[in-house]
Amino acid sequence: MNGGDARHAPRRPDNDRQIPERTILLIRHGRTEWNDIYRFQGRTDVPLNEEGLEQVRKLAERVASWPLDAVYSSPLQRALRTAEAVASRHGKAPVVLEDLAEMNFGLWEGASIRELREREPELMREWLRDPFFNMPAGAETWEDIRSRISRAIRTVLDSAHRHVAVVSHGGVMRVLLALLLDLDPHTVWNIRSSNCAISGIEVRGRQNLLAFSNDDLHLRGIPEGVSLPVW
């Protein structure tokens, strides 16, 4: 299934020596208490917990030396606090895009996966099998999600910024990857999206390339002062 209007590109032979016209860091927010108990957060504005704040500190240190022209963020505080930490290391403030907010999970907002497995086992199995196309009552449809994330992508790509970061949520990260890389939305939930991990996209003309995915080395006990590459 094609992502539609998010500037997909014809496939061309890769050339690692070609300088990207634009680089995009995709960043998921730090952990929250609801992440810890596998509760659907969606549009619920849950703050970062202590672990999440420490993850954000390490993330900001990791990307401090990366050239950064702009940081775009979801308006929800768990993402915005993450974006603020990243942007502040570059003397900037995040640009808030409402379209980068997490998916609306409708009647499942606030429920845990364990509760739903007991209460609605068949619906939960169908959601786990193909999430974007088995959303609960009152939730966003794939078409709704695709439409607004496409708008966010256009905003980023229409800007003059060459090096940008986009801070958002687990569900949105997968939509961004589906649209930017022309991936099948039925399969992108097989891509891991960890809290405070980073993925890199290179834009080369009309071709978007995945440079790396779900990099969270900065959270894995790297000694202080050790420099980790971003690109």
Task: Briefly summarize what is shown.
This protein has helices at 33-36, 50-62, 77-88, 113-119, 121-129, 142-158, 170-181; strands at residues 22-28, 70-73, 95-96, 163-168, 198-204, 207-215.
How would you describe the overall organization of this protein?
The protein has 231 residues and is α/β, with parallel strands linked by helices. The chain has one domain: Phosphoglycerate mutase-like (Rossmann fold). Helices cover 32% and strands 15% of the residues. It is built from seven helices and six strands, in the order βααβαβαααβαββ. The protein has helices at residues 33-36, 50-62, 77-88, 113-119, 121-129, 142-158, 170-181; strands at residues 22-28, 70-73, 95-96, 163-168, 198-204, 207-215. A six-stranded mixed sheet has the order 3-2-4-1-5-6, sandwiched between helices. Strand 5 (198-204) and strand 6 form a beta hairpin. Helix 2 (50-62) packs parallel to helix 3, helix 4 (113-119) packs across helix 5 and helix 6 packs across helix 7 (170-181). The two termini are 30 Å apart.
Overall average pLDDT = 93
What sort of overall outline do the alpha carbons produce when their principal axes are compared? globular
Strand order of the largest sheet: 3-2-4-1-5-6
Order of helices and strands: EHHEHEHHHEHEE
Number of helices: 7
Q: What characteristics describe this protein?
A:
6 strands; Rossmann fold; 231 residues; alpha/beta
Task: Please write out the topology.
Layout: E1 22-28, H1 33-36, H2 50-62, E2 70-73, H3 77-88, E3 95-96, H4 113-119, H5 121-129, H6 142-158, E4 163-168, H7 170-181, E5 198-204, E6 207-215
Parallel strand pairs: 1-4, 2-3, 2-4
Antiparallel strand pairs: 1-5, 5-6
